[in-house]
Write a structure and sequence with these properties.
The complex is a heterodimer of chains A (114) and B (117). Chain A is an all-beta fold. Chain A has strands at 9-13, 18-23, 31-38, 45-50, 55-56, 61-64, 70-75, 84-92, 108-113. Chain A has a five-stranded mixed β-sheet, with no helix packed on it. Chain A has a four-stranded antiparallel β-sheet with strand order 2-7-6-5, with no helix packed on it. Chain B is mainly β. In chain B, strands 2, 4, 5, 6, 9, 10 and 11 form a seven-stranded mixed β-sheet that branches. Chain B has a four-stranded antiparallel β-sheet with strand order 1-3-8-7, with no helix packed on it. The model of chain B has no long low-confidence stretch (mean pLDDT 91). Classes of the chains: A mainly beta (114), B mainly beta (117). At the A-B interface, β3 and β4 of A face β4, β5, β9 and β10 of B.
Amino acid sequence: DAKTTQPTSMDCAEGRAANLPCNHSTISGNEYVYWYRQIHSQGPQYIIHGLKNNETNEMASLIITEDRKSSTLILPHATLRDTAVYYCIVRVKAGGTSYGKLTFGQGTILTVHP
Amino acid sequence: GAVVSQHPSRVICKSGTSVKIECRSLDFQATTMFWYRQFPKQSLMLMATSNEGSKATYEQGVEKDKFLINHASLTLSTLTVTSAHPEDSSFYICSASQDRGLYNEQFFGPGTRLTVL
């Protein structure tokens, strides 16, 4: 699976949008971009995923550049409960030899402050 | 939907004993389950992948005789840490995946914190 690069940490004010970048310059055509987050001492929580189009759900929006080499996760109105480690993961689509596997990097520690 | 539970949430044991951790998918059938380990201030590391009814596939460096994985049904997988030692103290997290064709989401359990004295 392609490697991802994320900033180590970011801060965001409560109520503002949090924009978390991720670089995945070696992504292949059959690889999706996934985002998970992990609140302290809990299991990771799925946020969103996409292939090449922008995606939005009730939690966040995912913006993928046209060349697919980078993406941004947007939390539109961050709350204190959004403080967590955010993982950007590139994952092979079903059917590949890495079917189902998620490889976690170090992620971005997002701190939302009042 | 897509709830995964783990039991116990915390366990403290003496060195040399074995500990079993259960992972259950509560509202879906999990064709594949994964076991991860996370040390303090580190990221999750995949230990093994298991499919129901077959032997688990272990990642490089993970001792299969020490970390026994059983995936006996589509809703239950167990991880047994045999002859546990203090260095096995960690946060163990499972995830369950349902085959849905083009992609299969992984849903994570809340984790089990193991402390070996």
